[in-house]
Design a protein that fits this description.
Layout lengths: L1 E3 L11 H16 L4 H7 L4 H9 L6 H10 L5 H19 L13 H10 L2 E6 L10 H9 L6 H14 L10 E7 H5 L5 H14 L5 E6 L13 E5 L7 E6 L4 E4 L2 H17 L3 H13 L2
Parallel strand pairs: 2-3, 3-4
Antiparallel strand pairs: 1-7, 2-5, 5-6, 6-7
Length: 293
């Protein structure tokens, strides 16, 4: 089930978390060979409500999830706990009006930033650029000059929003962040030599944080390394594997929400991570590239 981000107004809107949870409930119902009408009777509701739940259009109550899981024969306590965590995050997400909603130029990134705010872990594979959460303001500005953000005020909005997002890497409960970056992204000069050197030094410094893991996939690893495109895997619930993948293409920014598809992304990330340098050797390579600029 691959769907692009679709947002509505208010509490009754299709959200990424809601669709991810709804997709799991749909899969469980199908595996149990139950109809939507039967599921509705189990929770004393209408079939229309089940349709909305499975489409992610309404926030879900914990009692409904528990009853449906029991009705579908689900006995894995950890899996059910993961669904409940996801439902709680979705309810919180629908209520909160985040800082990103004030930045009108964020556009389609709004939903991603909202997911980033409630995520517990992010894994990212980048071929051409340093990951956004690890970028310096100067590097971001240099990227903005070459992008559709042509006006200086627009570029500063880009800088402000990205630096604000980086606050997730600090505080009492920081985001666990694991980035695998192709060597080309470190050698491709963005901005002046001084800008690139500052970026690489910052990357090496961030990589030394206990909850930030940076690996470099060296050129010598060859071409079979997931070169089909960059992606992020966002994790929300500690129990289970209720992840979603986020992919940016020329045509759209897409959330990949199906379990099978996300397993494929997780396997691709594990592959490039396995082929990459260790975090320690990666920092050494980053330092060496910085000194050579």
């Amino acid at each position: 089930m691959n769907r692009g981000t679709r947002e509505g107004q208010g509490n009754r809107a299709s959200t990424v978390l809601g669709r991810r949870l709804g997709g799991e409930l749909h899969k469980l119902r199908t595996a149990a060979d139950r109809t939507q009408s039967q599921a509705a009777q189990a929770i004393s509701a209408t079939a229309t409500k089940i349709v909305k739940m499975e489409s992610g259009w309404v926030p879900m109550r914990d009692p409904d999830i528990r009853v449906l899981c029991e009705f579908y024969g689900v006995t894995d306590v950890r899996f059910v706990a993961g669904l409940l965590d996801l439902a709680r995050l979705d309810r919180e997400r629908r209520k909160v009006k985040g800082w990103w909603q004030q930045l009108h130029l964020v556009g389609n990134l709004g939903e991603y930033i909202a997911m980033e705010e409630v995520a517990t872990r992010i894994r990212t594979w980048q071929l051409a650029l340093v990951p956004g959460l690890l970028q310096t303001p100067e590097y971001i500005r240099a990227l903005g000059v070459k992008s559709e953000w042509s006006h200086p005020d627009e570029i500063e909005v880009l800088v402000t929003s990205r630096i604000k997002r980086q606050s997730r890497l600090w505080g009492d409960d920081p985001l666990e962040f694991h980035a695998v970056v192709w060597e080309a992204a470190l050698r491709q000069q963005i901005g002046s030599p001084e800008v690139m050197r500052g970026q690489l030094d910052h990357l090496a410094e961030m990589a030394r944080l206990p909850h930030v893991h940076v690996q470099v996939l060296p050129f010598r690893a060859g071409a079979d390394h997931g070169s089909s495109g960059a992606f992020n895997i966002v994790s929300f619930a500690d129990p289970g594997a209720l992840d979603v993948a986020y992919v940016e293409t020329l045509a759209a920014k897409v959330w990949v929400e199906g379990s099978e598809s996300n397993v494929a992304f997780s396997q691709a990330f594990a592959r490039v991570s396995r082929l990459s340098l260790s975090p320690h050797d990666s920092v050494n390579l980053i330092d060496a590239i910085s000194k050579g600029i």
